[in-house]
Amino acid sequence: MKTSRIKLSSSILLLIISAAAAAKPVAQVVEVSGNVFTTGADGKTSQLKSGQQIEERSDIMVEEGGSVTVNDYYNATYHLTGGSHLKFFNRSVQLKRGKTWIQSVNTRVPLALTTANGHVDFWKGEFITTFDLASSRSQVLVVNGEVEVSNVLNRGLKTTVSAGSFTMVDPEVESGTPRAPTRVGLQSLNAALGEFKKLPQKMLNTEAPSRSIASVEALPPATEMSAKKGEIIFIQSHRMPASVKPGDAHSYFKKVTRSAKPSKTPVPIKIYGVAWKETQPAAAPRVPASVPVMSPPTPKASTPSLETDTEFGDSLKKQEGEQPKYSKELKSLIDELKSY
């Protein structure tokens, strides 16, 4: 009889310990939208509310059009969309259907997510896991960081998936081993994230921040730095020292306004070999518009004076007398014609 009482007390103690262990909270609800239900380890189902604690081995089921965000106690956040079913354990979750987006900043203990055929080990990072109940296909898309994916029946053969890549575990392909990671485009990534109701602010900025020089001030908007008509903008290509104050020589843009008439710059001219004398042209006198302008008369060319030789001239005349130009008959005819 005494032995029976001892066994009964031990059984009651074990039941109490088991009940206490089953009631251990592992997560807490942050936000609920639409109809979301939870089923505890005792089999009781209730509607989930914001701030409610999630006990170990509890299931969360999201109705179509609803969503829920849950934080565990290891710095990991779980977002669920409509039609999803997730079960919570200590340091692990099981996705039975639908899609979940996990954001983890955990650096202390390893966490895990499982599906019917896939297993994901993760620490710090962000990834989206989808499980299709009809085809038994698991897909893992990594947003930040990296995760290790394997088949739930062969966890020793793992595939590392880095940010911007995805893999899948399909029982009909490669005997259910994870497919080699494939890069995903930005449009596909935004489409996957867009299925969730709430996106963190850091995920909305898809452009990677560019590194700039510490001593260079931020540039003004394009509308302010656009050049106006008649204005030239010079961009300094050299870096100024960090000790220079922004108000002094540290102005990154310098604006110069173009003058109406360009100024002439005197240039020295050097001529070698001849003497140079700068002459100014004489100004022409102004005359009335009705008086035609007369060009100055052209001077006649003067015949150069020749010094004659007297002796040569006398000889020339003598020869002309002795050698007449015409014959005597022709000469008499010319004289006769002249007499008429």
Structure commentary:
This protein has 340 residues and is of the alpha+beta class. It has a domain at 26-204: Jelly Rolls, CATH 2.60.120. Helix content is 19%, strand content 33%. The protein contains 6 helices and 18 strands. The protein has helices spanning 2-22, 186-194, 201-204, 222-225, 310-322, 328-339; strands at 25-33, 36-39, 45-47, 53-55, 59-62, 67-72, 76-80, 85-89, 92-105, 111-114, 118-122, 124-132, 137-151, 154-162, 165-169, 182-183, 231-235, 253-257. Strands 9-10-11-13-12 form a 5-stranded mixed barrel. The longest helix has 21 residues, at 2-22. The chain is rod-shaped, with a radius of gyration of 54 Å. It starts with a helix and ends with a helix. The model is unreliable at 200-214 and 221-225 (pLDDT under 50).
Could you give the topology of this structure?
Layout: H1 2-22, E1 25-33, E2 36-39, E3 45-47, E4 53-55, E5 59-62, E6 67-72, E7 76-80, E8 85-89, E9 92-105, E10 111-114, E11 118-122, E12 124-132, E13 137-151, E14 154-162, E15 165-169, E16 182-183, H2 186-194, H3 201-204, H4 222-225, E17 231-235, E18 253-257, H5 310-322, H6 328-339
